[in-house]
Each structure stands twice: as C-alpha cells, then as structure tokens.
Amino acid sequence: MRATLMCPCFFLSCHFEILYNQTMELKNATTAGDLIDFLKLQSSALLGDGSTRIQSFELPNSDKPDSFAFIKKEKWIEVVETSRVACILAPTKLRFQIADKGSKKTWIFCDNVDLAAQKIKSHFVFATPYRPSSIKGIHPSAVVAPNARVAASAAVGAFAVIGENCVIEENCFIGSHCVLEENVVIAEGSTLHPHVYVGHSCQVGRFCEIKPQAVIGSEGYGYAHDARGHHHRIPHTGRVILRDFVHVGALTAIDRGTLGDSIIGENTKIDNLCHFAHNSVIGKNGLLTASTIMAGSSTLGDNFICGGQTGITGHIQVTDNVNVAARSGITNSIKKSGAYGGFPVIPLKDHLKSATSLAHLPTLRKQVNRILRHLFPEEFQ
Fold it and tell me: How far apart are alpha carbons 328 and 305 in whole angstroms?
C-alpha cells in the first residue's frame, strides 16, 4: 500500500483547502444536473435544484451570480452561504451538516473533491497543458530539418528549432523558441512549453508536459582529473527517457546519462527548479517538489514522494513507497518503505521528536548547568 504523509510543516502538499483560485468562464453555460451526469454520480449526490445555471468557476466568497465553487472543509460552509455562489462541490461527509442548516443553495457531493474538480475544470474550462488555439501546423519562422517527421496534427510555434531525424508524433505541441537537437522523439499528445531544450537522442513519452526553460538531456557534470589538478570533460553519451504522462516543471534540468540512460518513470510529476544528475532513475508515480536535487547514478523506486529542497546523494537506491519530509537529506540507501525526515533521514516520527526537542535546548542547558554547579561546585569557582 502506498504510504501518504500529510504533514503541512514538512510537505508542499498537493491538496488545497480551496481548489480554485481564479475566475474561469465556462466554454458553454451548464447546470448542476449536467455536472452530476458528467461525474457519473447518483442523483442523491445533489442537494438543491439540478437546473441551477453555472457560467463560471469562482472563489467560495465570490459575489458573482451563476457561479460555481469547490470547498473541502467545514469552515467554508458559512463563507459560501453568505456569498452569491449558486452551486458548490463539497465532500460527502459534509452532506448532512449542510442539509441540517437548510441551505437554499445547490450542492453536489462526492467522495474525492480533488479528482472531481480536476475533471470538471479540464472538461468545462480547458485541459492543461494550455495550447494557444492560434498556433496550428508549423509556424513559418520555425526551423525544421528536411528529414524531421512532424505529424500533420502537431503544432510548432514561432522560432522553434527541430533538428535532424526528429520525430514529432500526433497532437504534439512544440512551443515558441523550443530547441530539439537531432534524433529526438516526442511521442503522441505531449506538450513542450516555450523555451524548452531537449538534447540529442532523448525521448519524451506520450502525453508528457514540459514547462518553460526546462532542460532535458544536457550533458552531466563529470570530469577526469590529471596529475596537475586539471579537469577534463567526460563526454556523456547516454540519453534522457521520459516515460508516458511525465510532467517536468519550469527551470528543471535532467542530465543525460554518462553511458546508460537517465529515466523518469510513468506518471511521475516533477516540480520547478529541480535537478537530476546523470544516470538518475526515478520510478512510476513519483511526486518530487520544488528544488529537489538528486546526484548521479541513484535510483528512486515507485511512488516516491518528497517535500521541497530534498537532497539525494549519488550511487544509492531508495525502495518503493517512500515519503520524505521537506529539506531532508538522503545520504544512504533506504530499503524499507515508509516516511522519513531530517538530515540525514531517519524515520519521520523520530525526526519530529528531535525537531520538537530543539526548542527546549536552551532551557535544558541552563538546568543541566545548575545541576552540575550543585554537584561539582569546585569546578565552577
């Protein structure tokens, strides 16, 4: 079973109290009943009028009529009741409490509000990654090698560069100023936001998303050293391979392998400002948050989760289903699944005890000093 650590002090959590934080107009006006049908919920999940009209998604305290909001916690019930939001999506566990209040608004209840919100926003507003509708086909300013293969349904933005023997499959989007060196493969449905670099021979799987300024397949940090202390660059001839449904955040760098490949497993999501050195291997379904840094030739198992600013040393192995608190340091292999924290990492419960104890150290020091003065007064004269 996959372990989940929900400690806000140590994790940049993927769950939010308010799931929606800006105005979004629907492509077409809809009703609460339409959302029930779309989510394949039973009619009993509806409290109120199924014909309630919805035209936009708003914050729970919005004063805009015909709007829709999401909440997850009890404290937001009063907020939406005093707002002009017409329809609210909420957890099933709040249903009876809301019904007892005699609410006059329309409510939709489901067990997984996060997932329902994702489905609704993707279908009724727009599906990320965002693709400008104005970009179709290959922009006249793009530079595409004659022997590159770009699918007819793919879009290539202004000033993008597509190198020799590249393959861009169906429904891909290559943003403006992207650079793809020779022999790169971008599989079906993947999106490269503007200013992404993909080094030669690297492969991007199906339905991946790579955010602006990310660097995929730069040469790793490796040098040979001579007797005079001079450093000589070692050519890195491996690749970077992103499996299907991988997301790579802005300004993140994934180095190519020295000989073998750096591999990011299926459905792994990487935040902004991360770095993964040569021969890094990450399993499936990982969640790696901002400023995570991983040294070369290390392997992370499936379902790895880490908080921001986690550091991972080189040449170690981390087993499946490991959660690591933010600002931790993994300096040795982890062979047992579970939650860890600290530098170097220890089991999370021990780390929390240690962190809590630090605040009491000044008082403890004074107390110990008084005891020592009492027991050994001659040493304090």
Answer: 12
